[in-house]
Amino acid sequence: MRIVSVDPIYLKMPSITTAADGTQDTLLVRIRTDEGIEGWGECDASPLVSLSVYCCPMSHGNIINIRESLIGERIDGPEDVRRLRARVLRQGLDIQQIHHAYSGADIAAWDVVGKKLARPVYQLIGGAKQYPKLPYASVLFGNSPQETIQVARGLKERGFGAMKFGWGPLGSKDAAFDEALVRSAREGIGNEAELMIDAGVCWGNDVEKVLERAKTFAKYRVTWLEEPLHPDAIGRYGELARRRPAVPIAAGENCGTARTAEDYLENGGLSFIQIDAGRIGGITPARITCEQAQKRGVTYVNHTFKSRLSLAAALHVFADAEKFKYLEYPAAGSRLAFDLVKGLERDAKGMVSLPEKPGLGVEVNIDVVREFMVPVRVELSGLTVFESERL
Ligand SMILES: [Mg+2]
């Protein structure tokens, strides 16, 4: 079959705030074929920056947009998904954001092929069997230790076995305040559950400070300390590892190419590498990183703070890796993200598995797409370069 349309679709909440909440808007990508099959993907990026990579006019032979590279192409099996990715990246060689922006299309292409072959994506990328994951509820710290305890108690009531607190005011005051936030999180969730802390890059390049904080946080039995340093500070991450921090370090969610993830694996000394399939370029490069992590003894974890469409895509990448047990599981966010796709609920044991269904195995609610969609039209001198499809 052939690809007949590639539609980047911009959705947003009526108002957007500065909170580190990535569910306030999104970019969906829908691919349709001449056999009537449609696949969906989602990017975790600035939606309109990525949308432009789908429709920017050609500058020369190395700046050709994603839609032009895909429409009319054959898509029948996994090899086509890989071939199409290579074609898009080659034709968009000089578009710096192309890997990142292609994430949604790569995910949608896997969904298409899974539906065509009537198999779940995790099997098409080499998995024989899937293993249930331990979802960790992922939320932001409250604005104070008191607020954090309330958030933590609320999550505990929802029965999560692992919880991660991040961003918010961590790192904005002194050591005592940071400790109070972490202590409140532990107090609120109780002694049983696993606790992860996401520093949200708040200590920049300051390895000394991270070592100090890690020592303090270790008292509260922290599974990992995430992104204590700037995403580009891969050498500093390596230095941090050589100095043996008191808690394991996690990072990698910002990787916009598979090569950046490889750099983290080679030089960052991480215990956990966190990959967002909606940022790194889709399921294809995320799977490459997952396999490299396996070889190096680093634990692969998804990064997901979007809808359950993104969560499904993220889970297919490592569903078959029994050793990689943690699943980032957004537990807060906008109605846009929660209503767009349903499913992937916890089972009686509190674990999460993929439905054994073709493709990604989840359905996009088109009414929710219509409700939050913001139509886009790009014009040059009165000529329309791009116009959103009517849904
Ligand atoms: Mg994070």
What's the arrangement of strands in the largest beta sheet? Answer: 10-9-8-7-6-5-4-11
Count of DSSP H/I helices: 15
The CATH class name of the largest domain reads Alpha Beta
Classify the beta-strand content into a percent band: 15-25%
Give the CATH H-level superfamily of the largest domain: Enolase-like C-terminal domain
CATH T-level fold name of the largest domain: TIM Barrel
Kindly state the percentage of residues in helix: 25-40%
The H-and-E topology, N to C, reads as EEEHHHHHEHEHEHEHEHEHHEHEHHEE
Mean of residue pLDDT values? 97
> Low-confidence stretches at least 5 residues in length (pLDDT < 50)?
none
Major pleated sheet: 8 strands, parallel
What is the level-2 CATH architecture name of the largest domain? Alpha-Beta Barrel
Give the distance, in angstroms, between the N- and C-terminal Cα atoms.
Answer: 23 Å
Class based on secondary structure composition and strand pairing: alpha/beta
| Radius of gyration (Å) | 21 Å
